[in-house]
Amino acid sequence: MGSNLYSIGLSGLQSSNARINTTGQNTSNVDTEGYSRQRTDTTSSPVGGVVLRDTARLVDNFVSKQVRTDTSTHSYYDTYHSMISTSDNLLAEDSISLNTYLNKSFDALQTVNNDPTSSSLRQLAHSSLTNLVQQYHVLSGVVSDQEGLVDAQLSSSLKDVNAITSKISSLNKQILRQEGLSRSPANELRDQQELLAKDLSEYLDINAQFNDEGLMTIQLANGQPLVMDQNPTEIKVRPNQLQPKKIDLVVSFGDYEVALKTQGLGGSVGGLVDYRSEFSVYADRTLGQHAIALADAMNTQNKKGIDGNGQAGKNLFSLGEVKVYSSLENINKAKDISVKVSDGEAAKITKETFELTKTDDNRFSIKRIDEKGNSTEQNIIFDPVSLTKDSDGYVKIDELGIDIRIDNMSAIDDNDVFRFTPTEGAAAGLSLFAKNGEALALSAPVSVSTGSSNLSDARISLTSVTNTDPETSAFSSDGPLYPSAPHQIYFTSPSSYVVRDATGVEIASVSNVTQYTKLLEQAGLSNEAGFDVSVSSKPQKGDEFSISTDNIGVSDNFNGLALADLQNKSLVAGEDTLMKSFSGFISYVGSKTAEVEGHADASEIVLNESLARRDRLSAVSLDEEAVNLLKYQQSYSASAQVVTAARTTFETLLGIMR
């Protein structure tokens, strides 16, 4: 009985001592990050006493998984918000608002129209356009600077990710070795591993699992592995030859690499990738579309007038080269393909990317790809050989508003792929082609006059100028109207008139006239003439009106008013004015920022709740540990008394035997 009592007391001492050690370990790690409270379990022995089982971590794998998920979600929105809020603050700043500079430019055009002969006013208008171009560069720089910041942060984040996965893999080896040599679990090592998994979830949305040996494996939310037992992987950035602005990630397994799906990565890495692929690309292309609309409209209108030097108007702005990309093996062929925006077709320009491929010997296919990388609408098939080329060798793709030139079709194979985005970088590539204010073509290219012997008070006026291209209008390349063009309108009665050319030959007649506007359109000549005229009131028989380019003066502001009125035209995608379009863009940025901020705030609340749930189970409570310590001390003392009683009993028995 003494021997059994001694064993019972001794097991109690061992149990109490082990629990005191566990309590001491918990207490000493009260502030250790990632430490999980431990508990030593025991069971009653069939032969008396207590048997120590093991010292386990108090964790709930489901709660830990939820903490990692919520950490990833909050980190995603927090990172996205930090990037887009910076863009929002910069783009919405009044001092750099594009609308401020647009207002100043069009106000300057209105002012110079008051005195087209003033060189100083012309120069002020030219300076305002220079400042406008610089502002496009500033805004484009804001976007590109943010892209550079994303690239730097992404590079740093991936270094951290790869370091963490390497440490998790290393801990798997240590855990396997330690638990193989001892029956006790490697609690501290597993705590470190759990903490690393939580740290990793700040960068990516991960799924941590344990294999049959109890070793941690890490997969991304889409199932792609990052840590396989003791073999870590490495995430790397790889350039995308077809879309250099796109971020491509690969998972390296050492001997080979697998492309990583960038959708739904979660965490700060996902936030950076999504900001770059969603907002940054959208912002760059939106500004580019805006710049193209401005340049094309101003150029088209300026070429419809006469500049301060008495010459036909030329382009005011120039756009940068549309870059064509291809895979590395075909990059040398990309130089044979040139793309530009068709003159006067900016309203058709979208923010899409276009993929050009060769379908057979002569035909090519163009596929539309939106900002998210999805194909849209049906492919456009065209044959460059059968289409009419302009003087520079370009063919026009009417549906897209672009011109394409393919210099060496025989060098392009059927499987070759080329991509280009007209709006990409267009804001940064915008420049002012006009050298000075005299390049502003404020005057009309044609003059009209009322016959001095006319019987009525009707006066002729120039209604519109739609085309001054020598190849498709009445305007010749050296200035005067072609002899075969309309030169005179003669009324044969108050309700009928004829149109004559320079030699007096009748080229059209109109009867039953009730409206005296757009006379050339009524005669079916306005399209080929490129202009139209009206008379102010009902003419009399014998009234004649002349059309020529002889009396053009720099004091005229007909085309200047049309230039200034572009401010009110729906130029961007044929839907919005320049100012409305930019205001819409700023509103989008503000709305997106507010949306992401709301998600960031909500996800922080959810994360804090998950952390609180984990702490209720796994965090160390000093009050609870103090109670446990007192209890185990008393248990130890009581067990010691049992041992003492057993020894006394045993000594008494020995004394009786003597």
Give an overview of the whole structure.
Residues 618-654 form the Flagellar basal-body/hook protein C-terminal domain. There is one protein chain. The protein is 43% helix and 19% strand. The chain is α+β, with helices and mostly antiparallel strands and 658 residues long. Among the domains are: 1-30 and 620-657; 321-424, no CATH class; 445-551, no CATH class. The chain has a 5-stranded antiparallel beta sheet with strand order 11-18-13-14-15, with no helix packed on it. Strand 4 (216-220) and strand 5 (225-228) form a beta hairpin. Helix 4 runs antiparallel to helix 6. It starts with a helix and ends with a helix. The mean pLDDT is 90.
Number of separate strands: 26
Distance between the termini: 19 Å
- The percent range for helix content is 40-55%
Q: Which spans have pLDDT < 50 for at least 5 consecutive residues?
A: none
Quick one: biggest sheet? 5 strands, antiparallel
Strand-residue fraction? 15-25%
Region (Disordered): 19-48
Pfam family, one: FlgK_D1
Protein name: Flagellar hook-associated protein 1
Domain Flagellar basal-body/hook protein C-terminal: 618-654
